[in-house]
Structures
1.
Amino acid sequence: MRVLAVNDISCVGKCSLTVALPVLSACGVTCDILPTALLSTHTGGFTGYTFLPLDDEMNKIADHWETLGLKYDLIYSGYLGSRAQIAFVKDIKRRFLKEGGTFVVDPVLGDNFTFYKGFDEAFAAEMLSLCAEADYILPNETESYLLTGTRDFSAALEKLSAVCPHPVITGAKAEDGYYIYFGDRGEQRMPIPCVEGSFHGAGDVFASAFCGCLMRGLILERALSLTAQFCYRAILRTQKEVTDRKYGLNYEREIFPFLQSLEAEARQ
Ligand code: PXL
C-alpha cells in the first residue's frame, strides 16, 4: 500500500509530516510526502516562526512524478497554507490517486473555536470545496463549526454528509462526554475517552493513524476506535509527563500498543 501525505514540514512541534511519516510507516505502509511549506515551528502557540511556502517546488515535484507514473492507494491532505494550495491539491488528487483510491482530507483550520493564524472565512469556504472531493474528512469540533456555521454536531454532520460520503467529527464535546460523530450510515456517534482541553498535534496523530488503519483494511468504525485509543493514550502520557503542549503529543511510546491492536485486526 502506498500513501501520499500532502502537508507541511514544521521542524519543531510534532505535527504534519513529522507525524505522518513515522506513524504511517509504523503501520506498515509506504508514505511518500509532498511538503506544502517549511516552517521552523508550527503556528499554534509559537511566535517568530519562519514560513516558506513551497508552491513552485510542489509543481516541479508533481511534474517529475508524472514521468515516473506514480499512483497512490490513498492521498491524505492536511495543513495547506493558501487557497492556491487547496486548488493544487485537487489537481494532485486528479493526477496521482489510483482509480478507486481513497482521498482523506483533514481540513486544518483551527482549534478552540478560532482560526489558526492566517486563515479566515474565505479560506474555510475553499477548504469546504476540497472536502467535497474527499472520501473521508476529519474536522475537529472547531473545524466542523468553521465549515458549517453550527456548533450542533448532528446538524453539522448532516451538512457535511451532503458534501462528503464519510464525514468524521473528532473530539466532539457533548453534554455527557466526548464523541466521534461519523455519518456513513446515517448519524452515528462513538463515545471516546478524552482529556479536557486541547493538545496540539492531536489531530495530525489522529489523521495519520486513521489513514494507516484504513490502509490495513479496517472498517471505518474499527479504524476510528483504534485511532481514538492511540490518541487518548498519547494525550494521557503528554499530560503525565507535563510537556509544554505546544511541542505536540508524546505519542512515540504508544505506537507499539497501537500496532499490536492494529496487527490483530488488519486484513491486508
Ligand atoms: O496541527 C495542525 C497544524 C499543522 N501545520 C501547521 C500548523 C498547525 C496548527 O497550528 O500551524 C503549520
2.
Amino acid sequence: MSKLVVEGGVPLHGHVQVSGGKNSALALIVAAALAEGPCLLHNVPDEIDVHTIGEILRALGVKVEFRPDRNEAVIDGSTLNGFQAPYELVRRMRASFYVAGLLLARLGKAEVPLPGGCSLGSRPVDFHIKGFQALGAEVNIAHGLMQAEARRLTGTKIFINRSSVGATINLMLAASLAEGTTVLENAAKEPEVVDLAIFLNGMGAKIRGAGTNVIKIEGVPRLSGTEYTIIPDRIEAGTLMIAAAITGGDVWVEDVVPEHVRAAVLNLQEAGVKVEEEPTRLHVVAQGRPRAVDAETAPYPGFPTDLQQPFVALMSVAEGTSIVRETIFDRFRYVDELRRMGADIKVERDTAIVRGVERLTGAPVEATDLRAGAALLLAGLAASGTTEISGVEHIDRGYERLDEKLRCLGARIQRVVEPA
Ligand code: UD1
C-alpha cells in the first residue's frame, strides 16, 4: 500500500509526455488474441489494468509478454484454449468482459463472470449480452456468470440502445470472425473504437464506419498477427492540462492528438486558460485564477466523463459558480473528499454546483476510484499545505507514473510505501 504526500502551491512548468491510451490498450490487447499468430503492440502503458487484462488472457492460454521498459506487448492467441475467465481477475475491472467477445468469436463458447457493482454505481452489461444473442449466441446467466455458446456467430443488424464504448468494442470483437456482415447502429464514436477498427483491419478484418455511429463488420474466417502503435491517452492528456491550469503553470503536453481532447480544450479556454495547439502537442498556460464554466459530460466528441472529476477539482478554485452535470455514470462520491479540502460543492442528483473558493487546504483524503484519485491529486497540487492521498492503487490502475511525471514538472509529491 502506498500513499502520495503532496505539498501544494507549486506552479507546474516544463514538458510532459503522454502515455499510450489505457482504454485503447485494454481493447487492443484482447483483440490481438483473435489472431492466430503473434501481434506486437507499441505504446502500451505500464499500468495495473493493462497487466490485469494480460493475466486474464494468460489464464485462457494466450501467450502475453509485456516489455514495460519499451512500452511493448507481444500477444500470441494461437494457444488460446480456455473458455472460462477467472472471477478473481475479472472482478477487478469492467473491461475484462471484452474476453467474452474474444472467446465467442474464437472458440464459440465463453464463461465470463459478470462485472460486479463498483464505486461508479451500477454498470450493467446488458447491451453486450443482447448483442451476443443477436449474433446467435445462446446465453445463460446464473450465479453471477454469463455462459454463452454459438457454433459460429452470424452477422446481423444490432441497435445499441445507448452509446456504449464497451458494448461497441465487445461486439466488434465478436463480429469480426462471424459469418456474414454485422451492422452496429448507434455505435460509440470514441477514438478507442476507431483505434480498435484500424488495428483489427491490420489483422485482416473488414470493418468500415468506425468513428461514425454506424459500423459495418464483414466477418472473415481468420485474423493474423500484426504490429500496431496505440493512440495517446486522451484522458491522461486532459488530466495533465488541468494540472497545469489548477497550479497556475505553463506546461507543454507532448504526444497528443489535439482533436481527441477538443472538448476539454474548449472548456479550459472558456475558463480563461491559454491553450495553444500544435499537431502533436498542446501548450497550456494558466492566466491567473480560472473562471467558472458550466460543463456537461457526453459521449465523444463531448466532454468525457473521465475528466469530470479533475475538472470539478479545477472549478473548485475558480472564480464564480460552476454547474457540472454528469450524464454517463453515478460519479460524484469523491466530492466528499474534495469538501474535506475546503471545496464548496453541493450535489443534486446528477449535478454538482461548485462555488469556487480562493484556496483549497491540504488534508488526508482517500481515492476511491481512478479518476477521483486524479482529481484529489490535482486538488492537492493547488492546495495550501500537505495533502495525503491514500488508495493510490486506484491511480496506478490507469495512469502510468502520474506522480513521477508531475514531479518532473516541479510538483512536490512523495510516494510513501506503507507496511502492509
Ligand atoms: C468506457 C471507458 C470508461 C468511460 C466510459 C464512458 C473503458 C475500459 N472504459 O467504459 O473509462 O468512462 O466508457 O466514456 O474503455 N450501459 C448500459 N448497459 C451496457 C453498457 C453500458 O446500461 O451494457 C450504460 C452505462 O452504465 C453507462 C453508459 O451506458 O451509463 C455508457 O457506458 P459505456 O460507454 O459502456 O462505458 P464502459 O465501456 O464501461
